[in-house]
Write a structure and sequence with these properties.
single chain; 432 residues; alpha/beta; 9-stranded mixed sheet; 5-stranded mixed sheet; 10 helices; 21 strands; elongated
Length: 432
């Protein structure tokens, strides 16, 4: 997710910044989505003349409430390994700062379990306040700069707000509304279409469905909460697997722990069909994925519409093991944390049913925080086994600093699961 920002930031150098600094033409804040949500990671300032990078000091800038990790000048509005004299000043920020996140509210101590909000032991939990703050930073040039022509650009004590915002990958999605012609349901969805989309070729489609913690009316909630939707639209993934990405936003809880869903499941199926008809989608390579309640909706769709998806990546969910018995031949890659008090025993029950019916399960117990090369080797080892069913469990305590946190291991599962390229690559190799 750390690809060059040059293309994304190309638009910020238009217009004049509403700042008090006479030499600053534009000021942009950059948001990026991580496993635990979108955070403001960068501020880019455009000056009216080139800044001498060799004489640029970190103490010349301040960003309120944030820790600056790097500052450098550049000839373009992009991150750089070394920087160089130019009209842009790039200020990189620590994404672990408490004020880095753009989302107010968040899960309570337990975190929602599959299907709905619950704390440790399955008790009720207060739902988060789903408010998205602006992608904005408050900046001051507190010290002097030197331009390449030798002119001193004096610092000023006054802070100003960035006047432009860039949401990496999130801005590449468009929001639409689907009206179900059969039951009247209305469903908002986000859609990513590959750059350079060509109607002469067919594209895979990935459906991502979020968990209940982002229930609400703002369609961006499902995009900014974590990597489940946006990772498929990242430059790296699109270079390997150009695909459409479909991410609905739900304004009410859909799946429940009694393994029932309202008729919105049928609306989701018709929404997928609508998008697949409007665009050149390879119907033999449509996939579903989801976390918690979204995983449960994926399971419900796979059972009710067995010919809709070629394969699924299922994260931190469960379903009625009697019903999931029908999926014994479907290519599935399941990721669950052993500290998840609902999804782990729930998914184990489905695994047991498949094994009782003669299925071979490729299993792996991993540390969620294992290095990338180890995870790649683990994926390769499991993928090499002659089976369509893959079950990865995160060793208890590895998804969260406090091993006794119980429910938090549930929500932390997808913080790590969607970061593994090998599982995503496996999904695209499946065909109906």
């Amino acid at each position: 997710m750390a690809a060059c920002l040059a293309c994304t930031l190309a638009t910020i150098a238009v217009g004049a910044a509403s700042t008090a600094h006479p030499h600053i033409k534009s000021a942009a804040a950059i948001g990026e989505v991580f496993g635990d949500g979108e955070k403001i990671t960068t501020v880019v300032l455009q000056y009216d003349k080139a800044i001498d990078n060799s004489r640029l000091l970190a103490k010349a800038f301040s960003v309120k409430g944030r820790t600056i990790t790097r500052i450098y000048a550049s000839r373009s509005a992009a991150r750089s390994a070394h920087g160089g004299s130019g009209a842009f000043v790039v200020i990189e920020l620590n994404p672990t700062d408490r004020s880095a996140s753009i989302r107010d509210g968040g899960p309570g101590p337990g975190g929602p379990g599959p299907g709905g909000p619950s704390g440790p032991g399955g008790g009720p939990m207060q739902m988060p306040v789903n408010k998205i703050n602006p992608v904005q930073a408050t900046v001051a040039q507190t010290g002097d700069l030197v331009a390449t022509d030798g002119e001193k650009i004096a610092g000023q004590a006054a802070y100003f707000h960035t006047d432009k915002a860039v949401n990496r990958i999130v801005d590449d999605f468009q929001a639409f509304t689907f009206q179900d012609p059969k039951n009247g349901n209305r469903l908002t969805y986000n859609l990513f279409v590959p750059k350079g989309y060509d109607r002469a070729r067919k594209y895979p489609l990935v459906l991502f469905m979020p968990d209940a913690s982002v229930t609400g009316n703002d369609p961006k909630l499902t995009l900014i909460q974590g990597l489940g939707a946006v990772v498929w639209g990242s430059p790296g993934d699109q270079a390997k697997h150009p695909a459409l990405v479909l991410a609905p936003q739900f304004n009410t809880q859909i799946a429940s722990d009694d393994f029932t869903t309202p008729n919105i499941i049928d609306t989701i199926e018709r929404m997928v069909d609508h998008v697949a008809t409007k665009y050149r989608v390879d119907r033999n390579r449509m996939y579903t994925t989801g976390q918690s309640g979204g995983c449960m909706m994926s399971l419900a769709l796979l059972i009710k519409y067995p010919n809709l998806f070629a394969a699924a990546m299922l994260v931190a969910g469960q379903w009625d093991p009697k019903a999931t018995a029908a999926l014994i031949h479907k290519p599935l890659w399941i990721v669950v944390s052993e500290g998840d008090i609902k999804a782990f025993p729930g998914m184990n029950a489905s695994i047991a049913v498949w094994e009782q019916n003669g299925a071979t399960i490729a299993k792996g117990r991993w540390s969620a925080q294992a290095p990338a090369d180890q995870q790649a080797a683990d994926v390769a080892k499991m993928a090499a086994q002659e089976t369509n069913l893959h079950y990865t469990t995160y060793i208890q305590g590895t998804t969260f600093a406090n091993p006794s946190s119980g429910g938090m291991e549930h929500m932390n599962t997808w913080k790590f699961a969607y970061t593994i390229p090998g599982i995503r690559d496996w999904l695209f190799r499946q065909s109906r």
